[in-house]
Amino acid sequence: MSEGEKTGKQHPDYVKAPMSRRRFASRVAAVLGLGGAAGYLAGAPAGWPLSLRDPTGRRSEPVKKPVQLGDYRVAVRAGAPDVTVARGGPSIAQRLRRALAPYGGIEAFVSPGDIVMVKPNVAFDRAPILGATSQPELLTELIKLLLIDARAQEVRVADNPIESPPDCFEKSGIRRATEEAGGRIYLPDSTAFKMLNTPGATLIEYWPVFHRPLTNVDKVIGVAPVKDHNLCHASMGMKNWYGLLGGRRNQFHQDIHEIVSDLSLMMRPTLTILDGSQILMKNGPTGGDPSDVKPGDAVLCGVDPVALDAWAFEHLLERGRRYPRYLEMAQGKRTGILDWTGRVEEVAS
Amino acid sequence: MPSKYAPDHVLNPIRRRIFRRSITRAEMASSGVLVAALFLAGLWILVQRDNFDPGERDVSYEALVAGSIEELPYRAQLVRWREPGSADAGASGPDLGVFPVGLLDGGWELDGRVETYDESNLYEKINGQAEQYLKFDFRKLHYVTLAREDTYLTLELYDQARFRNTLGVFAAQRDPEQKVETRGPLVFYRTAIGAIGLLGNYFFKITASAPGEPVAAKTESLLSALAELETAGDASDEGFSILADGLRLPFSSISFAKENALQFDFLREVWFATVGGADGARVFLHRADSEEAARELYGQLVAEQKYEHALVDGGDSRSVMKHEFLGTWFAVARRGSWLYGVDGGASSQDAGALLSSLEKEIS
User: How far are the Cα atoms of A7, A273, A294 from residue A90, in angstroms, in the given order?
Assistant: First the structure.
């Protein structure tokens, strides 16, 4: 109980503040204005200006701004071929170096200090002998070239297999190859994906991709096997980027040629390398019988992914010039030129 | 004038700011620093939360595995429940599902648990290849990985519901030059790192990581164990019996097309067998739902084949025609609900003889 209440007198510090009519009216108007504005914000239909009405409760969900991938291509020196093929020779390592020689080596693509993302095909938990995944030896050699010759800051090796990613990296031999050469593996987890906007793509204009390994990278290199595919006839360099897609990507099998051609828009890599060492000639993409695998002796490098795949389809898979439809569609999307004539340099051993 | 120091304040003698007319510069500065720090921290969280880059944090591979999409707890081996107090309490081994007990002999151990996939999630295991199995009435995939030192071996067991579907998958994947072996109801061919074969409604693949003596021995052991596997439905099929038992054609020559037979989308569920090597003629037969359905299919087939063939002898239930460019002979006939014929015959006599053989077996 205060002193004033005890004594029944007004507190000595009390100062009466009389309010004028104008002030009273202005305060009432302010209160009514604020109340009316709040009522409008809360009650106005969702489509009205400034309305905060949220009948579904979903307006408060965070809106993630889609990202766009950069163009990772670099200008190659004048006169360099669009596709190089190195056949024969004692090892994959030597073939890779020969295939890169017409461009001026790996240094023509990667500068000192670059962060490089390498995307092998690690789609299945299969042994390399089955030809369903990229060959570890080629990956080892490429990482060494990137770290030693090109003095890259970091080499990231990433793929997003639908199967258990650790199993796939382990059993395909990619984990050991990467770690031995000094690369760093990126495995997918639920926070590693971002909504990607690919302008011009038909099926994946907005689609989640495994983006974490692409964070801050300067260059991107695809390393793909050459293999038969049950649905799209052949899985080579362009199809390899399918492994970066997230979400329920199996639904794209309904329109596989469209999605593969979209991938050529999504990723404009610095370089694509095709491994013609273990060519899965039938029963792809998983394989299972080593007799379906034809030992090869070729490594291909290319800066035109369409011409690169076309040459491999014809010469490594030996399927003639009835190319998969996705290559023609990719050409239609202006991501490469199908006719490789005069644009391929075969490097002698 | 009342003192600005309140007598009842113990820790902070200064009045609360709200009751003061002036605030010191030091207080203003410290507040500013705090607000700025909070703002910067919030900004950093906003920027970094969605931009996680393990390359900057040196996250180990093991940590990445632990956080990967695969749910590791679900890989632990399942153990069959044993009632506490029962005679075999505590003695149970891992749950092998449909796989035979002999799976784990010879020093091989289970790597993870037995996995099963149905038609809704088969793509998770064999993305891109799943459609081939789904086309042949796929029901379930039982998948297990065995490990022994540095070698691992996987056994895939596809339940295709019926023998005809299993044979369809088998024929689609088999290299025609592979030598087919049989062991009781088990039919298979060997690969350098395992074996591929079928048993009733099951199609199986044994695939090791590398060739070697332990792998060969384990493959042999698994083949023996699989031969004992209980199958569902018939181990054979009426159409298959006509070709294999009636015409005595080798198993390796027989195949089954679920759809798009002879490249006609209206022709489904057709048995084929090559006669006289890979380049020889093929006989085919199909059992329609009714005699009327067989009649309709016969009419459609004859009409379609006329685009590339010249009709030599045509009738309501039997037609013989010659390919206009290849010069090969095509013959088709129907009897009851059966539709059967010969494709790629070298002469009209050959085609006619094969057609007669089929007719004899069907009747």
Answer: 109, 19, 17
